[in-house]
Amino acid sequence: MDSAEVRGSNAPPQGGSFRFYLDGQRWQWSDPVARMHGYQPGEVTPTTELLLSHKHPDDHAQIAALFEKMIHAGEPFSSKHRIVDTDRRIHHVIVVGDRMLDEEGQVIGTSGYYIDVTETLETDLRDFNTALIGAVAELERSRAVIEQAKGALMLVYGISSERAFGILIWRSQHTNTKLRILAERFVESLTAEAMLPESFRARFDHLLLTAHKDPTED
Q: Which CATH superfamily is domain 10-118 in?
């Protein structure tokens, strides 16, 4: 796959993985992540400085702060931002990372994945449909739980329904897991673990209780 394929819009979201080790602050990235940045596999060794140099100028400060927390506090994170590849093409990506632990439960780094959800994915779905044929039948049989999973992705990442579905498709294909089963496990995990701050819940309550009102009216 070359850089032209990376920036193509008529395909499911491109995804790849990464690892960051606290010892020596070493990075590893998969071939797809290298290509997202415009490099051939093995062409460069990723570093914190290299990764930051590819962040869009408007997103640079946000990601620098996120990296700081990841490196010094080992905190899990998720981010939706833009990267600029070696040909100056902009990619819209979602990056999710979680802590890596050793056998004694000590944090040794972070592992996660990149998903390229470039804007054009949303504007031309006709060719993208060929990648969704198998998933559509599954969707009809399992619509409720998949819609719940999509809704969670839309809320957390601030993305469209089509993009959320594309991410579920990508994870389904990447892990060789049926879409329905993946969605069920994801929703069950959210139900068991999600703890929203009180400020968010209070705002949510307000929006729910005032949803019947016309926002243009006082």
A: PAS domain (3.30.450.20)
